[in-house]
Amino acid sequence: MADMDLKSSAFNDHSFIAREYAYEGENVSPPLTWSGAPDDAAELVLLCEDPDAPSGTFVHWIVVGIDPHSDGVEPGQSPPGGTELVNGYGERGWGGPHPPPGDEAHRYFFRLYALAEPCVLPDAPGADEVHRAIEKQQLASGTLVGLYQR
């Protein structure tokens, strides 16, 4: 499987995410850029998840149907051609970091997948459902990890 390059101008890999992107801040999705999607990709899927959440992996953002020829998304916007699904807060779109006060920094995995076929998911899938749905059809992927602590 090929690697895609996923970056943000708002934070570096394994560095802290600013409060403006957090749930208790402005709750604006961070800017992202990407490259390296295979030419034969049917779509891109973006998932942001927190595996350190006390109740199990928490979904902060799921976007399906992203244009595979796109190269990023501006802060507070939906990726080009994408459909935002319902996150772990029960809201459509981005839901920023909001770990319990006093916890060590949580890790927020932004994962971008290039898929051979369109992804079919329920409106509010869990992280495991997303991983299962893309497992057999992913052509390439990229990961960016941000940290957040309250």
Write the layout of secondary structure elements.
Elements lengths: L1 E2 L1 E3 L7 E2 L15 E4 L7 E8 L7 E9 L5 E2 L9 E2 L21 E10 L11 H9 L2 E11 L2
Parallel strand pairs: 1-10, 3-10
Antiparallel strand pairs: 2-4, 4-7, 5-6, 5-9, 6-8, 9-10
Question: Which terms summarize this structure?
Answer:
150 residues, mainly beta, seven-stranded mixed β-sheet, 1 helix
Q: Please, could you describe this protein's structure?
A:
- The relative contact order is 0.29.
- Strands 1, 3, 5, 6, 8, 9 and 10 form a seven-stranded mixed sheet that branches. The chain has a three-stranded antiparallel sheet with strand order 2-4-7, with no helix packed on it.
- Strand 5 and strand 6 (58-66) form a beta hairpin.
- It contains one helix and ten strands, in the order E-E-E-E-E-E-E-E-E-H-E.
- It is 6% helix and 35% strand.
- With 150 residues, it is mainly beta.
How do you describe this structure in short?
This protein is mainly beta and 150 residues long. The protein has one helix and ten strands; from the N terminus they run βββββββββαβ. It has one helix at residues 127-135, and strands spanning 2-3, 5-7, 15-16, 32-35, 43-50, 58-66, 72-73, 83-84, 106-115, 138-148.
The total count of strands amounts to 10
Spans with pLDDT under 50 lasting ≥5 residues?
A: none
By DSSP (H or I, 4+ residues per run), the number of helices equals 1
The biggest beta sheet, please? 7 strands, mixed
Q: What percent of residues are in strands?
A: 35-45%
Distance between the termini: 36 Å
Tell me which oligomeric state these chains represent.
Answer: single chain
Q: In which range does the helix fraction lie?
A: under 10%
Choose one word for the global shape: globular
Order of helices and strands: EEEEEEEEEHE
The SS-based structural class is mainly beta
Rg, nearest Å: 14 Å
Mean pLDDT metric: 96
